[in-house]
Amino acid sequence: MAQAEAARCLSGLLNGIAQSVYYGSGDVTEELLRSEFYPEVSRDEFRALHEKMRGLLKSIAAADMDHAQLEAFLTAQTRKQGGGGVSADQAAALTRFWKSQRGRVRESLLAGSRWEPSLRGLTWRVDLQTAASRGDAAPRGPVALMELELGRTGQDSEFVCLEFDEAQVNQALRTMADVRRSIDGLARGSEGV
Description:
about 190 residues; alpha+beta; 2 domains; 3-stranded antiparallel β-sheet; 7 helices
């Protein structure tokens, strides 16, 4: 019975950490988890266990480990000497937790990495104005019209219309080329790390 109770407590701790770290539940505190699942354990011992499990969950979630990766990771953790590793029971609890919560944690991480408002759609066209349509003696150059559909999660879209003349289009293209070169440079720099 003691082993089943230990598994229940560790499962509760892992779920509590997920609530706090990934699901935005600010009322799930370290002290609440200790009083709920490990009241007989000293604060220092619980803090060490809490930080270990929190660190392991963050590593697992950051890598979005599949079953094989998780198994290899936890096998390496169980082989660690000293207090840095995990027991076989802890590894089993982590496996059960990740199997049931991987999708939800992943969605939480993705939602947290999105910029809001986000671009939902973009349409554009180029208009040529003739002298007769404007009443001018000389026609103006081409005009690029762009409509951006922007929105926040769970809200209706907003639309923004932009008008560019030829010089503004060329400037925007130069700026995008500069951004691309910067990103390529950063990507090449990180490959050597």
